[in-house]
Design the sequence.
């Protein structure tokens, strides 16, 4: 199975985050290295519009048959359109025969090869259309509110006064691992009635979007190195 690592150059929240030095190596290296340890992944392909990212990714073992076009690297571009573009070109121009694939975002550097392999095994065992990594939400979603421009509360859900223990657990996607059947992606979907969640712990579920996220991951990696 092939792994695709999408990493555009124009990050707004934390400029240059994909190749920013994280505890001694570029952040993207963590994703590529774990993917290459997988017993199921045969190749890691970087999908980027940035030659600097491409160079770093190749150094750590990824392949880059082509650069992503600019129109698929804007803030308004849909990620799913890039996946379709990438796989379509690999199949038609480079003699690949991709029917399913793993997507690994470089902004989840704490995910391990175990997470990758177990997600793929779940995908295969269930003959699934997709498997997406999730983590437990520690605060009930029923507590969430919209806040109006003048600072007032606006309900998202029907208001029920329940104790925390009475509320069913909920989970949210952590962005770490996606395993897709290409036919599902071609329909413009990530989920079907035959999709499953791979549950990850919170300490491996940090997705880097801001400098604060990045510093928190540095702290967790430091803690990990102490054991």
Sequence:
């Amino acid at each position: 199975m092939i792994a695709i690592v999408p990493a555009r150059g124009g990050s707004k929240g934390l400029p240059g985050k994909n190749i920013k030095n994280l505890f001694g190596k570029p952040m993207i290296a963590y994703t590529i290295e774990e993917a290459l340890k997988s017993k199921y992944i045969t190749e890691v392909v970087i999908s980027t519009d940035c030659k600097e990212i491409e160079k770093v990714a190749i150094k750590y073992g990824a392949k880059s048959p082509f650069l992503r076009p600019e129109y698929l690297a804007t803030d308004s571009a849909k990620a799913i359109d890039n996946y379709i573009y990438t796989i379509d070109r690999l199949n038609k121009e480079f003699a690949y025969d991709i029917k399913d694939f793993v997507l690994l975002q470089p902004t989840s550097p704490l995910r391990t090869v175990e997470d990758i392999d177990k997600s793929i095994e779940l995908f295969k065992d269930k003959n699934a259309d997709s498997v997406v990594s999730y983590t437990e939400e520690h605060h009930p979603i029923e507590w969430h509110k919209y806040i109006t421009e003048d600072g007032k509360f606006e309900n998202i859900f029907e208001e029920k006064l329940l104790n925390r223990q009475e509320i069913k657990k909920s989970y949210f996607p952590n962005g770490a691992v996606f395993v897709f059947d290409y036919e599902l992606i071609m329909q413009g979907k990530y989920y079907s009635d035959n999709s499953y969640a791979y549950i990850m712990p919170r300490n491996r579920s940090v997705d880097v979007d801001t400098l604060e996220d990045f510093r928190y991951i540095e702290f967790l990696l430091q803690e990990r190195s102490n054991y």
Notes: The chain is about 30% helix and 20% strand.
